[in-house]
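Box 3.1 A note on notation
Throughout this textbook, protein chains are presented in two layers. The first layer is the amino acid sequence; the second is a token string describing backbone geometry. Keep the layers aligned when reading.
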Amino acid sequence: MSETNLINPAPARASEVPDVSILIVSWNVKELLRDCLRTLKQNAGDVRYETIVVDNQSHDGSPEMIRSEFPWVKFLEPHANLGFGRGNNLAFEHARGRWTLLLNPDTVVLDRAIEKLVKFADDNPLAGAVGGKTLKADLSLERSCVWGSPGMWPMICKSVGLQIIFKNSRLFNREAMDWWPRDTVREVDVITGCFLMIRREVYEKSGGFDPRFFMYAEEVDLCWRIKKMGWKLMFTPEAQIIHLVGASAAKAKPNRLYHLHLALLKLYRKHYGETYMKVANFLMWMFCATRVPLMYAAIDLGLVNGEVTAKADAYHQTMKKHVKLYRRQFQADFDWA
């Protein structure tokens, strides 16, 4: 096989079609991945599933751990770091399930979560994709499991602080949806890629993830395309996992805010064009510009700790990079050729 090494290529009952293929893309999170797979096996519930792990060239012993401790896992080792989207596309090529569940390695599967999610999906024939509830390590709500679509109005609200001032407003906090405690079944705009289950035929017809997105915004792009195909995106609070947010991303990107902004700008250009993207770039600059002076003032007064200092520096660097993007007319950082 030219693109990848495949270990444990089939489960014991190769003739049995799984209800769901669980795809996990991992990079240097060995201990978290171990906990994820252990709790998956313990708490998946009464459901037929297969598990496919793609390791993006980890150097922390993850491949050896998978081989020795989890022989029931299909294990793929690409010869390059494919990122999140391309890694899942590769795993999907080896998947056989009726549903495809994207599961982050920094998650802990709780009581029968996979069974509950599959049942919910089967009970909603108009749903092209479904998602469940994510919790923090202390079992409090982790709100990023689903959210409203990002776009011009949410960016305006963020940049001038309306989203913070009117946190519980459906008008001014349309993207984060903090007014909703994720406790009811609801149709949503975006489901996070850490716990996102997609119909097999929908994944196939959509083409999966756009490989031009390496990290961030790829699930927004896919969710938008699924909705354009006429399918609904549905959320259930019954299927629950713990999500230790951003374990791989924190190691990969020293300035996560800038890379998130850059991915969103690519998303806006793809779906709405150059002018929309340039206005978004200005609003992202404003978002940083309205916060940096306040953060540095708080630092000078000794009101905050070192973490805020690092955050202020990251916002300051991101602000300057948005100016450079405008001056370069977005050419250098938007070369998708």
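The chain is about 40% helix and 20% strand. Residues 229 and 257 are 31 Å apart (CA to CA).
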